[in-house]
Amino acid sequence: MAWSCCMSNLWHRDILWARGGSIRLVTASVCYDRKAININGQRRILISGSLHYPRSTPKMRPDLIQKAKGGLDLI
Description:
Layout: E1 11-19, E2 22-32, E3 37-39, E4 42-44, H1 61-69
Antiparallel strand pairs: 1-2, 2-3, 3-4
Domain Glycoside hydrolase 35 catalytic: 37-74
GO molecular function: hydrolase activity, hydrolyzing O-glycosyl compounds
Keywords: Hydrolase
C-alpha cells in the first residue's frame, strides 16, 4: 500500500516551542499513516521515552534530560 496523505488526515498546527527561555511560533503540516508521521513533507518515525520523576532526585534530572536529548524526539 503506497503512503498517501489524505486531506482528512492533514492538520495544520501551530506549535509552541519553549527553548532557552524564548518562545517561537512554528506552523507545520502534519499527516500520518499506520507506520510514520509526515511533518512538512518529511516522513518521520518519532522515538519517544519517559522520565520517572519519583525514581530520580532533582540532582539527577539535568543529566537525565541531557541524555534524553541525545536520542529522543519526545519525552
